[in-house]
Design a protein that fits this description.
- There is one protein chain.
- It contains four helices and seven strands.
- With 198 residues, it is of the alpha+beta class.
- Strand 3 and strand 4 form a beta hairpin.
- The longest helix has 17 residues.
- It is globular and about 65 Å long.
- It starts with 23 loop residues before the first strand and ends in a 17-residue tail after the last helix.
């Protein structure tokens, strides 16, 4: 006897289309603990992950909270250290600064005491569950296939920041301010990591 759970020919095809590049989304970031600690750098409580090559990063997941792509998930590695040099770590610091600016509605040029305090954290645990606006980009996964990632936080000086954070659905961004574009990471290698993080 055939049933819906024996014959899948009439099942709906899965919709795996990627979120378009440049889409602005409101996301909640969570960090998958990797169990790596380095007290000298302030990396405590096991939030960091150390890869086989010695690269250290935060394994971040982003869940889209509202709009057309609500509940979709994206993943990004936030660089903390690479044996090949300081670049990946510097990019990770820039990304986290942008996340804090976005989450706390801090203008990137605001250097008031309150704004500076808003860019400080006690530990990476403060980033677990943080909500901010981000721009979707694509990079290659370990199979050479495109995957959607969050690489650029959207800050209050962006013209669509309020729209995105208020739960409306902003259009694809084509007018990224220069200072935000500078935070974008370099093209990924087929493994999904920048070359210096391999």
């Amino acid at each position: 006897m055939s049933s819906a759970w024996n014959n899948f020919n009439d099942a709906e095809s899965p919709a795996f289309a990627l979120i378009p590049k440049g889409t602005l989304v409101k996301v909640r970031m969570t960090i998958k603990p990797g169990g790596y600690n380095d007290p000298a750098n302030g990396w405590m409580h096991g939030w960091a992950t150390r890869g086989d090559t010695g690269a250290v990063y935060l394994n971040a997941e982003f869940v889209v909270l509202e709009g057309k792509y609500a509940r979709r998930k994206l993943w990004t590695l936030i660089g903390l250290h690479s044996p090949k040099g300081p670049t990946w770590g510097q990019m990770g610091r820039s990304f986290i600064k942008g996340v804090l600016n976005s989450a706390h509605a801090l203008h990137p040029d605001d250097m008031s005491t309150a704004a500076q305090q808003g860019r400080c954290i006690e530990s990476f645990g403060d980033l677990d569950g943080i909500v901010f606006a981000g721009k979707v980009d694509w990079e290659k996964d370990s199979y050479g296939e495109d995957k959607a990632v969050i690489k650029i936080p959207i800050m209050p000086d962006h013209p669509q920041y309020r729209e995105c954070m208020s739960g409306e659905s902003p259009a694809v961004s084509r007018d990224m301010p220069a200072h935000i574009a500078q935070a974008a990471t370099a093209a990924a290698t087929p493994s999904g990591r920048p070359a210096w993080a391999q």
